[in-house]
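Sat 14:20. Reprocessing the chain from the morning session after the first attempt stalled halfway. Input below, unchanged.
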Amino acid sequence: MAKLFSENGLTNDRSYIFGFMSMADDEDLPDGAWMQSLQDSVELFNEMHKTKHNPYEMTMEYINRSLNEVKSLSITLQKKG
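Finished this time. Tokens:
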């Protein structure tokens, strides 16, 4: 993982950048465009916060985290049903 440089600690928090990325998460885009929009959001985040996140690595981590959240929700709903 890239070393993060921040004066305010917020840019070190994964939930902060993932929240930022979620604004670019448009499920209606074709796969390639969707992936690029997520990577572009990381590049914009880097510019705004002077961080050095790797766009590809952060996108993959974002996707994996999102999939895990969906799986967790599905298991919870199955237990309640």
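The first helix runs from residue 14 to 22.
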